[in-house]
Design a protein that fits this description.
86% of the residues lie in helices and 0% in strands. By secondary structure, it is mostly helical. The protein contains five helices and no strands. The two termini are 13 Å apart. The longest helix has 33 residues. It has one domain.
Length: 139
Protein backbone atom coordinates (compact mmCIF):
# COMPACT_ATOMS: atom_id res chain seq x y z
CA UNK A 1 0.00 0.00 0.00
CA UNK A 2 1.14 3.50 -0.78
CA UNK A 3 1.22 6.19 1.92
CA UNK A 4 -2.04 7.84 0.76
CA UNK A 5 -3.84 4.52 0.71
CA UNK A 6 -2.60 3.72 4.22
CA UNK A 7 -4.06 7.01 5.43
CA UNK A 8 -7.34 6.24 3.61
CA UNK A 9 -7.41 2.74 5.15
CA UNK A 10 -6.77 4.04 8.67
CA UNK A 11 -9.31 6.87 8.44
CA UNK A 12 -11.98 4.62 6.91
CA UNK A 13 -11.33 2.00 9.59
CA UNK A 14 -11.66 4.51 12.44
CA UNK A 15 -14.71 6.32 11.04
CA UNK A 16 -16.61 3.07 10.53
CA UNK A 17 -15.45 1.74 13.91
CA UNK A 18 -16.69 4.86 15.70
CA UNK A 19 -20.02 4.85 13.86
CA UNK A 20 -20.71 1.14 14.28
CA UNK A 21 -19.64 1.09 17.92
CA UNK A 22 -21.77 4.14 18.65
CA UNK A 23 -24.80 2.48 17.04
CA UNK A 24 -24.19 -0.74 18.98
CA UNK A 25 -23.77 1.06 22.29
CA UNK A 26 -26.90 3.14 21.61
CA UNK A 27 -28.86 -0.07 21.07
CA UNK A 28 -27.52 -1.88 24.14
CA UNK A 29 -27.35 0.98 26.65
CA UNK A 30 -29.63 3.79 27.79
CA UNK A 31 -27.04 6.53 27.35
CA UNK A 32 -27.48 9.55 25.11
CA UNK A 33 -26.08 8.96 21.64
CA UNK A 34 -23.99 12.13 21.89
CA UNK A 35 -22.37 10.90 25.13
CA UNK A 36 -21.67 7.51 23.58
CA UNK A 37 -20.24 9.12 20.44
CA UNK A 38 -17.94 11.37 22.48
CA UNK A 39 -16.80 8.41 24.56
CA UNK A 40 -16.08 6.29 21.48
CA UNK A 41 -14.12 9.12 19.86
CA UNK A 42 -12.10 9.52 23.08
CA UNK A 43 -11.44 5.77 23.15
CA UNK A 44 -10.42 5.84 19.49
CA UNK A 45 -7.95 8.67 20.07
CA UNK A 46 -6.61 6.89 23.16
CA UNK A 47 -6.17 3.69 21.13
CA UNK A 48 -4.25 5.52 18.40
CA UNK A 49 -1.85 7.08 20.92
CA UNK A 50 -1.50 3.83 22.88
CA UNK A 51 -0.87 1.92 19.63
CA UNK A 52 1.97 4.26 18.74
CA UNK A 53 3.57 4.19 22.21
CA UNK A 54 3.07 0.47 22.83
CA UNK A 55 4.40 -0.62 19.44
CA UNK A 56 7.37 1.73 19.69
CA UNK A 57 8.52 0.09 22.92
CA UNK A 58 7.48 -3.41 21.88
CA UNK A 59 9.64 -3.12 18.77
CA UNK A 60 12.57 -1.89 20.92
CA UNK A 61 12.32 -5.02 23.09
CA UNK A 62 11.52 -7.52 20.34
CA UNK A 63 13.90 -6.63 17.55
CA UNK A 64 14.40 -8.49 14.31
CA UNK A 65 12.25 -9.09 11.28
CA UNK A 66 8.60 -8.51 12.13
CA UNK A 67 7.41 -11.03 9.57
CA UNK A 68 9.33 -13.74 11.43
CA UNK A 69 7.53 -13.21 14.74
CA UNK A 70 5.92 -16.36 16.05
CA UNK A 71 2.20 -16.87 16.63
CA UNK A 72 2.97 -17.02 20.36
CA UNK A 73 4.69 -13.62 20.27
CA UNK A 74 1.92 -12.12 18.13
CA UNK A 75 -0.71 -13.45 20.53
CA UNK A 76 1.20 -12.01 23.50
CA UNK A 77 1.51 -8.69 21.64
CA UNK A 78 -2.25 -8.53 21.07
CA UNK A 79 -3.20 -9.53 24.62
CA UNK A 80 -0.73 -7.12 26.25
CA UNK A 81 -1.84 -4.31 23.94
CA UNK A 82 -5.55 -4.86 24.72
CA UNK A 83 -4.95 -5.16 28.48
CA UNK A 84 -2.93 -1.95 28.41
CA UNK A 85 -5.65 -0.20 26.46
CA UNK A 86 -8.26 -1.34 29.00
CA UNK A 87 -6.20 0.31 31.76
CA UNK A 88 -6.69 3.64 29.98
CA UNK A 89 -10.21 3.20 28.66
CA UNK A 90 -12.09 1.76 31.65
CA UNK A 91 -11.61 4.95 33.71
CA UNK A 92 -12.44 6.97 30.60
CA UNK A 93 -15.73 5.09 30.06
CA UNK A 94 -16.59 5.31 33.76
CA UNK A 95 -16.00 9.06 33.83
CA UNK A 96 -17.53 10.07 30.49
CA UNK A 97 -20.65 7.89 30.82
CA UNK A 98 -20.93 8.37 34.59
CA UNK A 99 -21.06 4.66 35.38
CA UNK A 100 -19.41 2.53 38.06
CA UNK A 101 -16.14 0.72 37.36
CA UNK A 102 -17.78 -2.69 36.90
CA UNK A 103 -20.24 -1.33 34.34
CA UNK A 104 -17.40 0.48 32.57
CA UNK A 105 -15.39 -2.77 32.53
CA UNK A 106 -18.28 -4.78 31.04
CA UNK A 107 -19.00 -2.07 28.46
CA UNK A 108 -15.34 -1.81 27.53
CA UNK A 109 -14.95 -5.58 27.19
CA UNK A 110 -18.01 -5.63 24.92
CA UNK A 111 -16.56 -2.86 22.76
CA UNK A 112 -13.17 -4.58 22.67
CA UNK A 113 -14.69 -7.87 21.52
CA UNK A 114 -16.71 -6.04 18.87
CA UNK A 115 -13.62 -4.20 17.62
CA UNK A 116 -11.65 -7.44 17.40
CA UNK A 117 -14.33 -8.99 15.16
CA UNK A 118 -14.77 -5.72 13.25
CA UNK A 119 -11.02 -5.50 12.61
CA UNK A 120 -10.97 -8.98 11.12
CA UNK A 121 -14.04 -8.37 8.93
CA UNK A 122 -13.00 -4.87 7.87
CA UNK A 123 -9.51 -5.92 6.79
CA UNK A 124 -10.77 -9.02 5.00
CA UNK A 125 -13.35 -6.94 3.09
CA UNK A 126 -10.88 -4.15 2.41
CA UNK A 127 -8.26 -6.53 1.05
CA UNK A 128 -10.77 -8.22 -1.27
CA UNK A 129 -12.33 -4.96 -2.46
CA UNK A 130 -8.84 -3.57 -2.98
CA UNK A 131 -8.08 -6.43 -5.37
CA UNK A 132 -11.15 -5.51 -7.39
CA UNK A 133 -10.85 -1.70 -7.42
CA UNK A 134 -7.33 -0.58 -6.48
CA UNK A 135 -5.02 -3.31 -7.75
CA UNK A 136 -6.23 -3.12 -11.40
CA UNK A 137 -5.68 0.64 -11.40
CA UNK A 138 -2.06 0.23 -10.28
CA UNK A 139 -1.30 -2.61 -12.71
Amino acid sequence: MQFKERIFHAVLFEVLAVLLTTIGMAIFTKHETSAIFGTIVAISLTAVVWNFVFNYFFDKVFTGAREKRSIKLRTAHTVIFELGLLIFTIPLVAYLLNVDWWTAFVMDIGMTLFIMVYTFVFNWCYDHLRLRFVAPATA
